[in-house]
Specification:
heterodimer; A: alpha/beta; twelve-stranded mixed β-sheet; ten-stranded mixed β-sheet; 11 helices; globular; B: alpha/beta; Rossmann fold; six-stranded mixed β-sheet; four-stranded antiparallel β-sheet; about 35% helix
Chain lengths: ~450, ~250
């Protein structure tokens, strides 16, 4: 006897979904964004969902996250609750300008763009596309490339909104901006948001992104963020991934840096069932400096995958990647980091390190550092280590009376601290420090107000 | 009162027997020096007493009348055993303060005492730092990270002073120390000396014993104690070297 199983064709599903909902998608967005959809969906049709045959997704079975039961919503979002009743960031002393995204959409769609000190603009991207079209048009979807990931095209085809940040020339934002991505729904849901951050010459800002889930449904997020850092700008992005383990997150960040700009990104992945972080950096201007850091602490059956590509397209730029992970239980993951030094990128200074600790025999990590060097005067180094905790250090601590469990925790905590210590928003750093500590102890480590709804 | 009794101890590392029937008895209040040429088994002895995971193929070790070998390293520490490491371990990211506070409070808890308050702990640190003349900034750093050889050794004595062990085992704490550091290390050991405590000082050279005067000197050779005596034995070894011991043992 044979059974015929109807295969769920993910690509076909999205193509149909797009055609059926095109007008609803457009009406919930802005012409400027709508203009890009046709090309994007064609690109997606051509490329399809990335397969494990592709080098870029070698270790990630991405098909599994496209659950046929995920609903997608494009119409007016009905939010039947007051968001402030259920969500309030409880980090003490974290004084930020707060922006909420709910299910990938700007929470208060009708809200006009906000103007902060120094002419800094924040608000909904769809709104900005209407109110500041000349600026959005110049940058929207030009850093994002589908070359490395067709899911970016999928996002461009469907994304209706997200966060817009504009730092005019010389603007300095004192208070960090905090974007809270909340997923909350009565059914399983897929969301695709689109962010655009522009830092003009000499401007400076710190942005914090927190991902939360507030209902136990299965969620999938396919989000794209484009960042432009003009000459001499200074941009700092911290991202905290803390969704429940029934959720999947595909996050694509594209960063373009001009001369003498400095950008720090720090991604801390604490929870989330399936996490894929793509980070594409192009150093376009001489003397630009990039720091891409990440910390992932995974247990149970979590899968965490960081894919980084730093493209040195100009001379005299420096980049540093530091990714550290602690994998427990059957958790698995991957780190794939590439440094490209193009032919003209002389005096490139690039460094990459990926260090992993595996706590069990079943935990797995695939680490692939790659260098593509076409210039002849460069300084590039990379290193990858995967191992267990240092037995000598364990014995040293135990010989002083520190119990084995506590000694392990101290070592893991110390291992993680190198990354945590480089979060530049102090109250956030203290909170992450605490969350990491609790996470390593196996205690619930979500922000308090989120915990009750998780798992 | 007898504190430690090691009887016919045999330890094997990678199929090679290192301790070949080692015997030693240490009473409270005593200082024992164990000397011997390289490769005689001195560090193996220290490691097995502190709880390193080594293969014991025979013999027993009683500490205060109880089987020591079945206890975990942390349990031994709680019962008062301290090992001063020959090569102290660097632990990047673990601060000295956090490390010592955890250790001190674990020991206190095992004695049924309340953890020290932050201010009492810092006070204790200050007091002991003076004792070992350790650079104040070192305790703000990660455990042993970037410490010079001498600083690492002083740090061992500092930790010992903080933890106030009953039985201190110092594994070549004098190696690589200049004369000033040597004096400080010895001073730390001597300050701890009391009727209730004992020390085993493992050393290659006699010069440490100018500062820490031992009650007994034992010569370890090829996994066994081949000669015991008082402090004059150390002077004899200094003068004549180890060759005559080897010849005697071989004969």
């Amino acid at each position: 006897m044979s059974t015929v199983k109807q295969e769920y064709d993910v690509k076909k599903h999205f193509l149909e979904l797009f055609r059926e909902n095109r007008s609803v998608i457009d009406s919930g967005s802005a012409p400027l964004m709508n203009k890009q959809r046709e090309g994007a969906i064609e690109e997606f049709e051509r490329l399809g969902i990335p397969s494990q045959k592709s080098e870029k997704y070698r270790y990630a079975d991405i098909n599994g996250v496209f659950n046929p039961n995920l609903s997608k919503s494009f119409g007016v979002q009905k939010v039947s609750f007051n968001i402030h009743d259920i969500f309030e960031c409880d980090i003490p002393d974290l004084d930020t300008n707060l922006i909420l995204l709910v299910n990938g959409r700007y929470f208060n769609k009708e809200e006009p763009l906000r103007e902060l000190q120094g002419g800094i603009i924040t608000g909904s991207l769809a709104r900005a596309s209407k109110d500041m079209p000349q600026i959005v048009e110049k940058y929207y979807n030009s850093a994002a490339s589908t070359e490395d990931d067709s899911l970016v095209a999928l996002n461009t085809a469907f994304a209706q909104d997200g966060v817009f940040i504009y730092l005019p020339k010389d603007a300095v934002l004192e208070k960090p901006l905090q974007i809270v991505n909340i997923m909350i729904h009565e059914t399983d849901l897929m969301a695709q948001h689109r962010n655009l951050f522009i830092a003009e010459e000499n401007s400076s800002a710190k942005v914090v992104v927190c991902d939360h889930t507030l209902s136990p449904n299965k969620f999938l997020t396919n989000g794209v963020t484009e960042i432009y850092a003009a000459s001499n700008s200074n941009f700092d992005l911290s991202k905290i991934q803390n969704e429940h383990n029934g959720s999947a997150q595909l996050s694509h960040t594209f960063l373009e840096q001009e001369s003498e700009s400095t950008v720090f990104t720090n991604t801390v992945s604490l929870h989330g069932g399936f996490v894929r972080n793509n980070m594409f950096v192009r150093l376009n201007g001489e003397g630009s400096e990039n720091h891409t850091l990440g910390l992932y602490l995974a247990d149970k059956t979590q899968y965490i995958d960081n894919y980084v590509k730093i493209d040195h397209a100009s001379p005299g730029c420096s980049s540093r990647q530091l990714f550290k992970g602690v994998m427990d239980d059957q958790a698995s993951g991957s780190f794939n980091g590439t440094i490209v030094a193009r032919k003209d990128a002389q005096k490139t200074n690039a460094y990459q390190a990926n260090n992993n600790i595996l706590l069990t025999d079943d935990a797995r990590i695939n680490s692939r550092p790659q260098l593509e060097i076409y210039a002849d005067d460069v300084k590039c180094s990379h290193g990858s280590t995967t191992g267990q905790l240092d037995e000598n250090a364990m014995f040293y601590m135990r010989s002083r009376g520190i119990p084995e469990r506590e000694a392990r925790l101290l070592l893991m905590y110390a291992f993680a601290y190198e990354v945590v210590n480089q979060i530049h928003v102090k109250p956030l750093r203290l909170r992450i420090d605490d969350l990491v500590n609790k996470r390593l102890r196996g205690e619930l480590s979500r922000c308090n107000n989120c915990a009750m709804n998780c798992e | 009162m007898q504190m430690l009794k090691i009887k016919d101890l045999r330890v094997t590392i990678e199929d090679q027997e290192i301790l070949k029937g080692f015997n030693l008895e240490v009473n409270a209040g005593e200082v024992h020096a164990i000397m011997g040429p390289n490769g005689s088994g001195k560090s193996t002895l220290a490691a097995v007493l502190a709880g390193r995971d080594l293969t014991v193929t025979g013999g027993k070790v009683l500490y205060n009348g109880e089987d020591l070998l079945e206890k975990s390293p942390e349990q031994r520490a709680k019962e008062g055993i301290f090992l001063g490491f020959q090569y102290p371990i660097e632990i990047p990211g673990v601060s000295m303060v956090n490390f010592l506070k955890t250790a001190v409070n674990e020991l206190r808890e095992s004695r049924g005492e309340k953890p020290l308050s932050a201010s009492d702990f810092l006070k204790l640190m200050r007091e002991k730092k003076e004792l070992v003349e350790i650079d104040s900034t070192l305790t703000n750093r990660s455990v042993n990270e970037g410490f010079s050889g001498g600083e690492k050794k002083k740090n061992e004595i500092f930790q010992m002073a903080m933890l106030e062990p009953k039985l201190a085992i110092l594994d070549e704490t004098d190696s690589g120390l200049d004369i000033d550091a040597l004096r400080i290390v010895a001073n730390g050991v001597n300050k701890l000396k009391s009727k209730e405590r004992a020390s085993i000082v493992i050393t290659h050279y006699q010069r440490l014993l100018d500062y820490i005067v031992p009650d007994f000197v034992h010569v370890l050779y090829d996994g066994r104690i081949v000669k015991s005596g008082d402090k004059d034995l150390a002077l004899l070894l200094e003068e004549k070297g180890y060759e005559w011991i080897k010849e005697e043992a071989g004969a």
